[in-house]
TrEMBL record:
Entry keyword annotation includes ATP-binding: yes
GO molecular function, one term: catalytic activity, acting on a protein
Pfam family, one: tRNA_anti-codon
Family in the record: Belongs to the class-II aminoacyl-tRNA synthetase family.
Gene this protein is translated from: asnC
Catalytic activity field: tRNA(Asn) + L-asparagine + ATP = L-asparaginyl-tRNA(Asn) + AMP + diphosphate + H(+)
Alphabetized HAMAP family for the sequence: Asn_tRNA_synth
Organism: Peribacillus loiseleuriae
Main location class: cytoplasm
Residue stretches making up the Aminoacyl-transfer RNA synthetases class-II family profile domain: 130-430
Enzyme Commission number(s) from the entry: 6.1.1.22
Entries under NCBIfam families matching the protein: asnS, PRK03932.1, PRK05159.1
Domain of life (superkingdom): Bacteria
Protein name: Asparagine--tRNA ligase
């Protein structure tokens, strides 16, 4: 019977065939140990010369790294294995022999690994990160579907920019100017007025010339938008959502977290509600902790966010940023016009902002004024103003960056490991 490695628990003491690749091997006299992978998981195949005969044993010992093969054997429990099972091999059939596989078990430099990203993805560590990424995506759909949200797909090519055009990739759309989307938010606001609660999940692009471990040129965003939700309502959704995906990973990716050496005790604490601190209080905290140079109206950088996050075991909301720091569409605080009803959610352990969100301006005149103040084309935003002309309501939304969230939950240092084929400032290959 042909099965995958992930299915072996159902076939203990039965003979099965697994198609996979040889990740590594070692031999000890008359026994060979084959580390097999098939995409669904890893398992050790034990080849005993006395049981399989000279020919099969010699074949097993000669298989090269990343050769593809069919392995037939008996599934057995193995308490010494993190996976809990091993395969007592009876026969081996080589499908294709891999010659001089470039990524050997020795240490390699980052640039070499990035040049060979198409092969590096096969490694145990990268496999674990991708499985955690997949679990976060699965849990995202589950959470929002359970909460009554409708999945909507905003366009990737747009004629306007929600946060200005300075960090956008421009292109020609026949005889018009167009941009690769940096956010689907404006379109999600339109669909929220039609469907109530919506979310999108798709690629976004930022032409930001940054080389930090937190930045990618192309990344994926989850962007919910909710009609009749005010700022506080949105914060509750955010903390419940983040708690949900963390707990889902803990439940369904135990082996992957172990492979990565992740401290799961820190993740086990991630449950709503999350602490909140205003921009003003955050600024005061920074002044008291060695950051005297930052002034009111300055944005927080990575060192500032890290210092604030280190004071909490949970993700922390920083709310009520100065209006001057935020995009044109954010609702001002009715009691204090110089700040807006917004929040950034900062992950613990130095992973920085993973969510940005706000209540949106729902007053036509104020939004029109903001568009003029930001010197944006009113013609390009006429459709967006229409949302405030025909049945406007208070509404809120947020965007979660998938790759930063994967980095935090999996515990990897750089976001380049959290997406299959990262696009960085100087990298468009492979």
């Amino acid at each position: 019977m042909k099965i995958t490695i992930s299915q072996v628990s159902k076939y203990v003491d039965q003979e099965v065939t697994i198609g996979g690749w040889l990740a590594n091997k070692r031999s000890s006299g008359k026994i060979a140990f084959l580390q097999l992978r098939d995409g669904s998981g890893y398992i050790q195949g034990v080849v005993v010369k006395e049981d399989v005969g000279e020919e099969i044993f010699a074949r097993a010992k000669s298989i090269t790294q990343e050769s593809s093969l069919y392995v037939t054997g008996i599934v057995q429990t193995d308490e010494r294995s993190p996976f809990g099972y091993e395969l007592q091999v009876k026969s081996v059939e080589v499908i294709h022999e891999s010659v001089d596989y470039p990524i050997t078990p020795k240490s390699h430099g980052t640039e070499f690994l990035m040049d060979n990203r198409h092969l590096w993805l096969r490694s145990k560590r990268q496999h674990a990160v991708m499985k955690i990424r997949n679990e976060i995506i699965r849990a995202t759909y589950e959470f929002f579907n359970n909460e009554g949200f409708v999945k909507v797909d905003p366009p990737i090519l747009t004629g306007s920019a929600p946060e200005g055009t300075s960090e956008l990739f421009a292109t020609k759309y026949f005889d018009e100017d167009a941009f690769l989307s940096q956010s689907g938010q404006l379109y999600m606001e339109a669909t929220a007025m039609a469907l109530g609660k919506v979310f999108s999940f798709g690629p976004t692009f930022r032409a930001e010339k940054s080389k930090t471990r937190r930045h990618l040129i192309e990344f994926w965003m989850i962007e919910p938008e909710m009609a009749f939700y005010q700022h506080e309502d949105s914060l509750k959704v955010q903390e419940e959502y983040v708690s949900y995906i963390v707990q889902s990973v803990l439940q369904n990716c135990k082996l992957e977290l172990t492979t990565l050496g992740r401290d799961v005790e820190k993740l086990e604490q991630i449950k709503a509600p999350f602490p909140r601190i205003t921009y003003d209080d955050a600024l005061k905290f920074l002044h008291e902790n060695g950051f005297e140079d930052i002034q009111w109206g300055d944005d927080f950088g990575a060192p500032h966010e890290t210092a604030i996050a280190e004071s909490y075991a949970l993700p922390v909301f920083i709310t009520h940023y100065p209006t001057s720091l935020k995009p044109f569409y954010m609702q001002p605080d009715p009691e204090r016009d110089e700040v807006v009803l917004c929040a950034d959610l900062i992950a613990p352990e130095g992973y920085g902002e993973i969510i940005g969100g706000s209540e949106r301006i729902h007053d036509f005149d104020l939004l029109e004024q903001r568009i003029e103040e930001h010197k944006l084309s009113k013609d390009a935003y006429n459709w967006y103003l229409d949302l405030r002309k025909y049945g406007s309501v208070p509404h809120s939304g947020f965007g979660l960056g998938l790759e930063r969230t994967v980095a935090w939950i999996s515990g990897v240092e750089h976001v380049r490991e959290t997406i299959p084929f990262p696009r960085l400032l100087n990298r468009l290959y492979p």
